[in-house]
Amino acid sequence: MVPLSLEDTRRLAASLRQEIGRVIVGQDAVVTEVLTTVLAGGHCLLRGVPGLAKTLLVRTLAGAVDLQFSRIQFTPDLMPSDIIGAEVLDEDRATGQRHVRFLPGPVFANILLADEINRTPPRTQAALLEAMQEGQVTVGGHRHPLPSPLFVLATQNPIEQEGTYPLPEAQLDRFMTNVVMTYPTADEEQRMLLQTTSGAGEAVRPVADGEVLLRAQALVRDIVTATNIAEGVTRLVRATRPLAGGEAPPFVHDWVRWGAGPRAGQALILLAKARAALDGRPAVSLDDVRAMALPALRHRVLLNFQAEADEVQVDDLLVRLIDAVLPR
């Protein structure tokens, strides 16, 4: 596949931002992080309190690309077959012969919105693991490939914990980014109130299709990563591990139970490449690494009880670590 040019990729990103901006007020950093994840070919976990337009953002992104969209509302009684599909027995009334037919589930889409993913039991959450990592599902011993490209964008409410099932670390690691949505500014909230309580809103039009996105992803792989950038990413990821032979600062040993694995470094470099491509630059800079370090690492670093006692948040620790390992 012929990669998209840098200029075309930059224009594609600008068009997607413009279409999303027709519906989503503000949240510029969140939109950039989501688009960067899509161009890097990864999956995204969106975290935020209710009412911040997490679901609307994913729906709007789906409307801006000409791809098959599917939504799953996760509930405590959701079964794996409700996600990946199931085999059903068909009978030919004329001949009386029976045969097994696979009925695809909603995961057979290009953009999958997994709404409130932490509201379903681990067994059902695990049904997404193979789909997210391998691009296929296995039912009855038969493998069924999923459409390409595939983007899983999951939403999670971080404050309402009753009746929820925390995502296991193995599944969290499959998400390339953990994007946090915060409250809008006063001006943004006023614009949102006026926009959503008046007449019909702006219509979103598709500005890309699957082939264009795949070509953009191919370009991201071609973005140059210098040796010093790779060394910086390696130092940063290894510095999150308290048992890595003294490479972590003292405060990491004090507050971190488990650090990020090698997949975090892979994700961070790809995200830095995608961010450079969004700006039309042919090479990664350390600013790209710093900008994407939080969404790439915050769900891959586990704090211990001492951090909880000291009221230390993972973002605070990572900001301090980034400043120590990758100073400006």
Architecture overview:
- The protein is an alpha/beta fold.
- The chain has 14 helices and 13 strands.
- The protein has helices at 6-21, 28-39, 54-64, 80-84, 122-134, 169-172, 186-196, 210-222, 227-239, 250-255, 262-278, 286-297, 305-309, 314-325, and strands at 44-47, 65-66, 69-73, 85-91, 98-104, 111-115, 136-139, 142-145, 151-156, 177-180, 208-209, 256-258, 302-303.
- The strands form five sheets. The protein has a five-stranded parallel β-sheet.
- A hairpin with a 6-residue loop joins strand 4 and strand 5 (98-104).
- The radius of gyration is 21 Å and the shape is globular.
Quick recap:
This protein has helices spanning 6-21, 28-39, 54-64, 80-84, 122-134, 169-172, 186-196, 210-222, 227-239, 250-255, 262-278, 286-297, 305-309, 314-325; strands spanning 44-47, 65-66, 69-73, 85-91, 98-104, 111-115, 136-139, 142-145, 151-156, 177-180, 208-209, 256-258, 302-303.
Measured distance between first and last alpha carbons = 37 Å
Q: Number of helical runs?
A: 14
Largest sheet: 5 strands, parallel
Shape: globular
pLDDT averaged residue by residue: 85
Give the topology string: H per helix, E per strand: HHEHEEHEEEHEEEHEHEHHHEHHEHH
Indicate the low-confidence ranges by residue numbers. none
Based on helices, strands and strand pairing, what is the structural class? alpha/beta
Total strand segments: 13
Q: What is the radius of gyration computed over CA atoms, rounded to a whole number of angstroms?
A: 21 Å
Work out the helicity level: 40-55%
Strand arrangement across the biggest beta sheet: 3-6-9-1-10
Strand-residue proportion: 15-25%
